[in-house]
Description:
The protein has 10 helices and 12 strands.
Amino acid sequence: MTNHPIRTTVIGSYPFPGWLEHATQNLDQFGGADIEEMIEDAVIVAIHDQVSSGLDVITDGEQTRIDFNLSFYGFIKGIKENTESIRKWGPPAHDQRGKNEIIEELTAPNGLGVVEEFERLKRLAPDGPTLKASIPGPYTLSGRLLPNGMYKDRWAITEAILPFVRQELEDLVAAGCTEITVDEPSMSCYAYKEDTNRFVDIFNRTVEPIVGKTRLSTHLCFGNFKGHAVGYRKIANMLPAFLDFKVDEVHLEMANRQFSEIELAAEFAKKMDVAIGIVDVKSYYIETVEDIEASIKLCLKHVPADKLSVAPDCGLSQTARWAAKKKLNSMVAGAKKVRKQL
Length: 342
Protein backbone atom coordinates (compact mmCIF):
# COMPACT_ATOMS: atom_id res chain seq x y z
CA MET A 1 0.00 0.00 0.00
CA THR A 2 1.38 3.39 -0.98
CA ASN A 3 1.96 5.51 2.11
CA HIS A 4 3.65 8.67 0.80
CA PRO A 5 1.79 12.00 0.52
CA ILE A 6 -0.09 13.04 -2.63
CA ARG A 7 -0.90 9.59 -3.98
CA THR A 8 -1.59 9.35 -7.71
CA THR A 9 -4.61 7.25 -8.59
CA VAL A 10 -7.37 6.73 -11.14
CA ILE A 11 -11.11 6.24 -10.81
CA GLY A 12 -11.54 2.97 -12.70
CA SER A 13 -12.15 3.05 -16.42
CA TYR A 14 -9.54 3.52 -19.14
CA PRO A 15 -10.03 3.96 -22.92
CA PHE A 16 -10.54 0.81 -24.96
CA PRO A 17 -7.86 0.15 -27.59
CA GLY A 18 -9.24 0.85 -31.08
CA TRP A 19 -9.13 -2.81 -32.04
CA LEU A 20 -11.27 -3.72 -29.01
CA GLU A 21 -13.89 -1.15 -30.01
CA HIS A 22 -14.01 -2.74 -33.46
CA ALA A 23 -14.12 -6.28 -32.09
CA THR A 24 -16.99 -5.58 -29.69
CA GLN A 25 -19.09 -4.52 -32.67
CA ASN A 26 -18.28 -7.74 -34.50
CA LEU A 27 -18.33 -10.39 -31.77
CA ASP A 28 -20.11 -12.88 -34.02
CA GLN A 29 -16.80 -13.28 -35.87
CA PHE A 30 -14.97 -14.46 -32.72
CA GLY A 31 -15.07 -17.66 -30.72
CA GLY A 32 -15.05 -17.87 -26.93
CA ALA A 33 -11.29 -18.45 -26.78
CA ASP A 34 -10.73 -15.46 -29.09
CA ILE A 35 -12.83 -13.23 -26.85
CA GLU A 36 -11.01 -14.30 -23.70
CA GLU A 37 -7.67 -13.61 -25.38
CA MET A 38 -8.97 -10.21 -26.47
CA ILE A 39 -10.04 -9.34 -22.92
CA GLU A 40 -6.69 -10.32 -21.47
CA ASP A 41 -4.80 -8.36 -24.13
CA ALA A 42 -6.91 -5.26 -23.45
CA VAL A 43 -6.26 -5.45 -19.70
CA ILE A 44 -2.53 -5.83 -20.38
CA VAL A 45 -2.69 -2.64 -22.50
CA ALA A 46 -4.49 -0.72 -19.73
CA ILE A 47 -2.02 -1.94 -17.11
CA HIS A 48 0.92 -1.02 -19.34
CA ASP A 49 -0.25 2.55 -19.87
CA GLN A 50 -0.95 3.12 -16.18
CA VAL A 51 2.29 1.56 -14.96
CA SER A 52 4.30 3.46 -17.59
CA SER A 53 2.88 6.74 -16.27
CA GLY A 54 4.11 5.89 -12.77
CA LEU A 55 0.74 5.77 -11.01
CA ASP A 56 0.68 4.63 -7.39
CA VAL A 57 -2.74 3.00 -7.79
CA ILE A 58 -3.98 1.23 -10.92
CA THR A 59 -7.07 -0.68 -12.06
CA ASP A 60 -7.81 -3.11 -14.89
CA GLY A 61 -9.22 -0.17 -16.85
CA GLU A 62 -12.68 -1.79 -16.74
CA GLN A 63 -11.86 -3.26 -20.14
CA THR A 64 -14.57 -5.92 -19.84
CA ARG A 65 -17.38 -3.44 -19.18
CA ILE A 66 -19.79 -1.55 -21.41
CA ASP A 67 -19.79 1.98 -20.04
CA PHE A 68 -18.84 1.91 -16.36
CA ASN A 69 -22.09 0.33 -15.21
CA LEU A 70 -24.32 -0.90 -18.07
CA SER A 71 -22.58 -4.26 -18.40
CA PHE A 72 -23.60 -5.15 -14.84
CA TYR A 73 -27.15 -5.67 -16.06
CA GLY A 74 -25.86 -8.75 -17.85
CA PHE A 75 -25.14 -10.31 -14.46
CA ILE A 76 -28.53 -9.43 -12.97
CA LYS A 77 -31.36 -11.79 -13.87
CA GLY A 78 -34.88 -10.49 -14.44
CA ILE A 79 -33.98 -7.67 -16.84
CA LYS A 80 -35.03 -7.20 -20.46
CA GLU A 81 -32.87 -4.83 -22.49
CA ASN A 82 -34.71 -1.86 -23.95
CA THR A 83 -33.16 -0.19 -26.99
CA GLU A 84 -36.31 1.20 -28.58
CA SER A 85 -37.15 4.14 -26.33
CA ILE A 86 -33.77 5.84 -26.55
CA ARG A 87 -32.94 8.84 -28.72
CA LYS A 88 -30.58 7.54 -31.41
CA TRP A 89 -29.79 10.71 -33.35
CA GLY A 90 -28.61 14.20 -32.51
CA PRO A 91 -26.08 15.49 -30.00
CA PRO A 92 -24.64 12.81 -27.68
CA ALA A 93 -26.13 12.85 -24.17
CA HIS A 94 -27.30 10.57 -21.37
CA ASP A 95 -30.77 10.07 -22.88
CA GLN A 96 -29.12 7.90 -25.53
CA ARG A 97 -28.57 5.18 -22.94
CA GLY A 98 -31.68 3.05 -22.59
CA LYS A 99 -33.65 2.24 -19.44
CA ASN A 100 -34.29 -1.49 -19.21
CA GLU A 101 -37.45 -3.31 -18.17
CA ILE A 102 -37.71 -5.52 -15.11
CA ILE A 103 -39.65 -8.66 -16.05
CA GLU A 104 -39.21 -10.78 -12.91
CA GLU A 105 -37.59 -10.76 -9.49
CA LEU A 106 -34.05 -9.39 -9.62
CA THR A 107 -31.31 -11.87 -8.68
CA ALA A 108 -27.56 -12.15 -9.19
CA PRO A 109 -26.84 -15.87 -8.71
CA ASN A 110 -23.29 -15.67 -10.06
CA GLY A 111 -22.22 -12.34 -8.61
CA LEU A 112 -21.46 -9.17 -10.57
CA GLY A 113 -18.17 -10.15 -12.19
CA VAL A 114 -15.91 -7.73 -10.33
CA VAL A 115 -14.09 -10.48 -8.42
CA GLU A 116 -13.13 -12.13 -11.72
CA GLU A 117 -11.88 -8.76 -12.99
CA PHE A 118 -9.75 -8.32 -9.87
CA GLU A 119 -8.33 -11.84 -10.06
CA ARG A 120 -7.27 -11.17 -13.67
CA LEU A 121 -5.69 -7.86 -12.62
CA LYS A 122 -3.73 -9.59 -9.85
CA ARG A 123 -2.44 -12.16 -12.29
CA LEU A 124 -1.36 -9.67 -14.96
CA ALA A 125 -0.14 -6.66 -12.98
CA PRO A 126 3.51 -6.23 -11.98
CA ASP A 127 4.64 -5.82 -8.39
CA GLY A 128 4.62 -2.26 -7.12
CA PRO A 129 1.36 -0.39 -7.74
CA THR A 130 -1.62 -0.81 -5.45
CA LEU A 131 -4.41 -2.68 -7.27
CA LYS A 132 -7.86 -1.15 -7.00
CA ALA A 133 -11.27 -2.58 -7.89
CA SER A 134 -14.27 -0.38 -8.57
CA ILE A 135 -17.97 -1.14 -8.57
CA PRO A 136 -21.08 1.03 -9.04
CA GLY A 137 -23.23 1.42 -5.96
CA PRO A 138 -26.85 0.24 -5.88
CA TYR A 139 -28.44 3.66 -6.33
CA THR A 140 -26.41 4.35 -9.46
CA LEU A 141 -27.16 0.86 -10.80
CA SER A 142 -30.87 1.39 -10.25
CA GLY A 143 -30.93 4.41 -12.52
CA ARG A 144 -31.26 2.55 -15.82
CA LEU A 145 -34.05 0.21 -14.69
CA LEU A 146 -37.74 1.02 -15.04
CA PRO A 147 -40.02 0.62 -12.00
CA ASN A 148 -42.92 -1.84 -12.31
CA GLY A 149 -45.56 -3.52 -10.17
CA MET A 150 -42.95 -5.45 -8.20
CA TYR A 151 -40.56 -2.51 -7.73
CA LYS A 152 -42.65 0.64 -7.50
CA ASP A 153 -39.88 3.25 -7.67
CA ARG A 154 -36.13 3.78 -7.90
CA TRP A 155 -35.73 3.38 -4.15
CA ALA A 156 -37.29 -0.09 -4.27
CA ILE A 157 -35.02 -1.11 -7.15
CA THR A 158 -32.04 0.20 -5.19
CA GLU A 159 -32.96 -1.93 -2.18
CA ALA A 160 -33.23 -5.00 -4.42
CA ILE A 161 -29.76 -4.42 -5.89
CA LEU A 162 -28.06 -3.46 -2.62
CA PRO A 163 -27.44 -7.07 -1.44
CA PHE A 164 -25.78 -7.96 -4.77
CA VAL A 165 -23.27 -5.13 -4.44
CA ARG A 166 -22.69 -5.84 -0.75
CA GLN A 167 -21.94 -9.51 -1.48
CA GLU A 168 -19.56 -8.56 -4.30
CA LEU A 169 -17.70 -6.24 -1.92
CA GLU A 170 -17.36 -9.01 0.65
CA ASP A 171 -16.10 -11.39 -2.03
CA LEU A 172 -13.55 -8.81 -3.21
CA VAL A 173 -12.13 -8.49 0.28
CA ALA A 174 -11.99 -12.27 0.58
CA ALA A 175 -10.05 -12.32 -2.71
CA GLY A 176 -7.42 -10.04 -1.18
CA CYS A 177 -8.46 -6.68 -2.64
CA THR A 178 -6.91 -3.96 -0.48
CA GLU A 179 -8.50 -0.96 -2.22
CA ILE A 180 -12.09 -0.62 -3.45
CA THR A 181 -14.04 2.31 -4.87
CA VAL A 182 -17.83 2.28 -4.75
CA ASP A 183 -18.94 4.66 -7.50
CA GLU A 184 -22.11 6.61 -6.69
CA PRO A 185 -22.25 9.48 -9.19
CA SER A 186 -26.05 9.35 -9.18
CA MET A 187 -26.00 10.39 -5.53
CA SER A 188 -23.85 13.43 -6.25
CA CYS A 189 -25.84 14.28 -9.38
CA TYR A 190 -29.15 14.29 -7.51
CA ALA A 191 -28.03 15.61 -4.13
CA TYR A 192 -29.69 18.92 -5.01
CA LYS A 193 -33.17 17.39 -5.08
CA GLU A 194 -33.20 14.08 -3.18
CA ASP A 195 -32.87 13.16 0.50
CA THR A 196 -29.10 13.16 1.09
CA ASN A 197 -29.47 11.43 4.45
CA ARG A 198 -31.27 8.60 2.69
CA PHE A 199 -28.35 8.37 0.27
CA VAL A 200 -25.93 8.05 3.19
CA ASP A 201 -28.04 5.32 4.77
CA ILE A 202 -28.10 3.33 1.51
CA PHE A 203 -24.37 3.72 0.98
CA ASN A 204 -23.40 2.79 4.52
CA ARG A 205 -25.61 -0.30 4.57
CA THR A 206 -24.01 -1.37 1.28
CA VAL A 207 -20.43 -1.15 2.55
CA GLU A 208 -21.03 -2.09 6.20
CA PRO A 209 -19.54 -5.62 6.01
CA ILE A 210 -16.19 -4.40 4.63
CA VAL A 211 -15.62 -1.20 6.61
CA GLY A 212 -12.17 -1.41 8.19
CA LYS A 213 -11.19 -4.46 6.13
CA THR A 214 -9.92 -2.65 3.00
CA ARG A 215 -9.19 0.91 1.91
CA LEU A 216 -12.65 2.04 0.90
CA SER A 217 -13.46 5.08 -1.19
CA THR A 218 -16.35 6.55 -3.10
CA HIS A 219 -16.33 8.52 -6.33
CA LEU A 220 -18.71 11.48 -6.55
CA CYS A 221 -19.02 13.29 -9.87
CA PHE A 222 -21.64 14.87 -12.10
CA GLY A 223 -21.70 12.33 -14.91
CA ASN A 224 -19.61 11.84 -18.02
CA PHE A 225 -21.17 10.39 -21.15
CA LYS A 226 -19.24 11.26 -24.31
CA GLY A 227 -17.78 14.25 -22.50
CA HIS A 228 -21.08 15.58 -21.12
CA ALA A 229 -22.18 16.04 -17.52
CA VAL A 230 -25.70 15.18 -16.43
CA GLY A 231 -26.08 16.52 -12.89
CA TYR A 232 -26.38 19.88 -11.16
CA ARG A 233 -22.72 20.47 -10.45
CA LYS A 234 -22.56 21.71 -6.86
CA ILE A 235 -20.74 20.00 -4.01
CA ALA A 236 -22.44 22.20 -1.41
CA ASN A 237 -25.67 20.24 -1.89
CA MET A 238 -23.93 17.10 -0.59
CA LEU A 239 -23.03 18.69 2.74
CA PRO A 240 -23.18 18.03 5.60
CA ALA A 241 -24.82 14.63 4.99
CA PHE A 242 -22.10 13.08 2.80
CA LEU A 243 -19.53 13.65 5.56
CA ASP A 244 -21.11 10.61 7.21
CA PHE A 245 -20.16 8.18 4.45
CA LYS A 246 -18.23 5.30 6.01
CA VAL A 247 -15.21 5.58 3.72
CA ASP A 248 -11.48 6.13 4.03
CA GLU A 249 -11.43 8.46 1.02
CA VAL A 250 -13.83 10.51 -1.07
CA HIS A 251 -13.11 11.55 -4.65
CA LEU A 252 -14.33 14.95 -5.86
CA GLU A 253 -14.54 16.21 -9.44
CA MET A 254 -12.79 19.58 -9.58
CA ALA A 255 -10.75 20.22 -12.75
CA ASN A 256 -13.76 20.35 -15.06
CA ARG A 257 -15.32 22.96 -12.78
CA GLN A 258 -12.17 25.10 -12.61
CA PHE A 259 -11.79 24.13 -8.93
CA SER A 260 -15.04 25.80 -7.95
CA GLU A 261 -15.84 25.01 -4.28
CA ILE A 262 -12.33 23.68 -3.65
CA GLU A 263 -12.63 25.15 -0.15
CA LEU A 264 -15.27 22.51 0.62
CA ALA A 265 -12.64 19.80 0.27
CA ALA A 266 -11.50 20.92 3.73
CA GLU A 267 -14.83 19.80 5.19
CA PHE A 268 -14.33 16.29 3.85
CA ALA A 269 -10.69 16.28 4.98
CA LYS A 270 -11.84 16.63 8.59
CA LYS A 271 -13.45 13.19 8.36
CA MET A 272 -11.58 11.27 5.63
CA ASP A 273 -8.85 11.40 3.01
CA VAL A 274 -9.67 13.33 -0.16
CA ALA A 275 -8.84 12.46 -3.78
CA ILE A 276 -9.25 15.51 -5.98
CA GLY A 277 -9.79 15.41 -9.73
CA ILE A 278 -7.06 17.63 -11.17
CA VAL A 279 -7.21 16.32 -14.76
CA ASP A 280 -10.20 17.28 -16.92
CA VAL A 281 -11.31 14.14 -18.78
CA LYS A 282 -13.89 16.11 -20.77
CA SER A 283 -11.31 18.44 -22.34
CA TYR A 284 -8.59 17.77 -24.88
CA TYR A 285 -6.38 20.43 -23.42
CA ILE A 286 -3.40 18.46 -22.12
CA GLU A 287 -2.49 19.73 -18.67
CA THR A 288 1.20 20.58 -18.40
CA VAL A 289 3.36 19.52 -15.47
CA GLU A 290 3.28 23.17 -14.37
CA ASP A 291 -0.54 23.16 -14.51
CA ILE A 292 -0.62 20.07 -12.33
CA GLU A 293 1.88 21.55 -9.88
CA ALA A 294 -0.24 24.69 -9.51
CA SER A 295 -3.45 22.68 -9.06
CA ILE A 296 -1.91 20.49 -6.37
CA LYS A 297 -0.62 23.51 -4.49
CA LEU A 298 -4.14 24.94 -4.57
CA CYS A 299 -5.49 21.66 -3.18
CA LEU A 300 -2.88 21.70 -0.40
CA LYS A 301 -4.36 24.93 0.90
CA HIS A 302 -7.42 22.91 1.89
CA VAL A 303 -6.25 19.29 2.28
CA PRO A 304 -3.09 18.18 4.12
CA ALA A 305 -0.54 16.41 1.91
CA ASP A 306 -0.81 13.16 3.85
CA LYS A 307 -4.56 13.10 3.25
CA LEU A 308 -4.46 14.11 -0.42
CA SER A 309 -4.62 11.94 -3.52
CA VAL A 310 -4.85 13.27 -7.07
CA ALA A 311 -6.66 11.71 -10.01
CA PRO A 312 -8.55 12.48 -13.20
CA ASP A 313 -12.02 13.95 -12.60
CA CYS A 314 -13.75 10.73 -13.68
CA GLY A 315 -12.91 7.47 -15.38
CA LEU A 316 -10.99 7.89 -18.63
CA SER A 317 -13.18 5.69 -20.83
CA GLN A 318 -14.72 8.69 -22.59
CA THR A 319 -11.31 10.21 -23.41
CA ALA A 320 -9.19 9.17 -26.40
CA ARG A 321 -6.30 6.95 -25.36
CA TRP A 322 -3.59 9.24 -26.75
CA ALA A 323 -4.90 12.09 -24.60
CA ALA A 324 -5.44 9.90 -21.55
CA LYS A 325 -1.80 8.77 -21.62
CA LYS A 326 -0.50 12.33 -21.88
CA LYS A 327 -2.77 13.55 -19.09
CA LEU A 328 -1.69 10.75 -16.74
CA ASN A 329 1.97 11.36 -17.51
CA SER A 330 1.62 15.06 -16.63
CA MET A 331 -0.39 14.29 -13.51
CA VAL A 332 2.18 11.87 -12.11
CA ALA A 333 5.14 14.09 -13.02
CA GLY A 334 3.49 17.09 -11.37
CA ALA A 335 2.67 15.15 -8.22
CA LYS A 336 6.25 13.89 -7.93
CA LYS A 337 7.54 17.43 -8.37
CA VAL A 338 5.37 18.79 -5.55
CA ARG A 339 6.16 15.79 -3.34
CA LYS A 340 9.88 16.62 -3.53
CA GLN A 341 9.13 20.18 -2.40
CA LEU A 342 7.35 19.13 0.80
